[in-house]
């Protein structure tokens, strides 16, 4: 999963949109004002630049299952001797 922007903390400075190397985050101007969104979540490299550099600490990362280190015990076979 891509970064998650906590809207209540975000000051819409646009810095995360500027620094993202893949333009995953976009700042848009609407009739209601400036908005900041994770527009292309599937393109995220999980480099964490946006998370680290957000001055408001409004960004957190959610990693896809394939990025997590999982330790699973091998499933025991049942009914076989
Ligand atoms: S850098 Fe942080 S505060 Fe600025 S627009 Fe991005 S999420 Fe919001
Ligand atoms: S983690 Fe990296 S690639 Fe993903 S949105 Fe943030 S800056 Fe862009």
TrEMBL record:
The keyword Metal-binding applies. InterPro entries: 4Fe4S_Fe-S-bd (IPR017896), 4Fe4S_Fe_S_CS (IPR017900), Fe-S_Ferredoxin (IPR050572). Residues 1-30, 34-64 form the 4Fe-4S ferredoxin-type domain. The keyword Metal-binding applies. It comes from the Bacteria. Signal peptide: none annotated. Keywords: 4Fe-4S, Iron, Iron-sulfur, Metal-binding. This is Ferredoxin family protein. The lineage of its organism: Bacteria, Bacillati, Bacillota, Clostridia, Lachnospirales.
